[in-house]
Amino acid sequence: MTNSWRYMLLVPFIFSIIYMVLSTIYLPESPRWLVINNKKIRSKKMFLKKIEGKKLAKKYINNIEESLSIKNKISFKYFLKGNIRKIILIGLLLAIFQQVVGINAIITYAPMIFENIGIQSQNALLQSILIGFVNFSATIIALWLIDKKGRKILLIYGAIGMTITLLYLTYAFSFSQNNILILIAILMYVIFYASSFAPILGVINSEIFSNNFRGIGMSFAAAVTGYLRF
């Protein structure tokens, strides 16, 4: 179909409208933002809705206020200290590795890759849909594994799996043209990525950065991620 690409753009447009409507109606402000803007009562009510008991709500709000009081004393020199500098470097490297491992090339050029190995364009589009589904499914699995197995072990196995599959793809495109094995290798690469580097970056950065500079640290890592992605 000559207009099929227009339908592909229509689908995310519909979901973006749904997201906009739902976020406008149901998405609350962050309790931290409410405390920053002197709306402590609303922040306390927010915690009471999500967390059991007034005691915990008060504890979390006190932690926010304490971290904000420390944040005001932070200068640029604070980030050059030994331990803090190491944490910033870890968060930065994770953001870099998440993008340079090649996932964007696989996702973006999947139809061209499949056409180059002899799959017709219509089937190549279906293969791309399959990659998206596998990516989504593996991320859901990672939500279950990330606390059960740990962050470090998932990153290690993810890196090993991506290395092996990329080595095979390099070999396959150079010396062989087995379409089925290439497809399996691409799907396995996506599984290893989606169950390790894709979801773990945000989790680790939210844990290694302390409250007093978590916003700055995570924003910096996200900026690096966005730059490398494009």
Question: How would you summarize this macromolecular structure in one to three sentences?
Answer:
The chain is mostly helical and 230 residues long.
Structure description:
This protein is mostly helical and 230 residues long. The chain is 81% helix and 0% strand. It contains twelve helices and no strands. Helix 3 packs across helix 4, helix 8 runs parallel beside helix 10 and helix 9 runs antiparallel to helix 11. The chain is globular. The model has no long low-confidence stretch (mean pLDDT 77).
Features:
230 residues, mainly alpha
Strand content: under 5%
Query: Unreliable runs, pLDDT <50, ≥5 residues?
Result: none
Mean pLDDT: 77
Please state the structural category: mainly alpha
The percentage helix is: over 70%
* Helix-strand pattern: HHHHHHHHHHHH
Task: Please give the count of helices.
Answer: 12
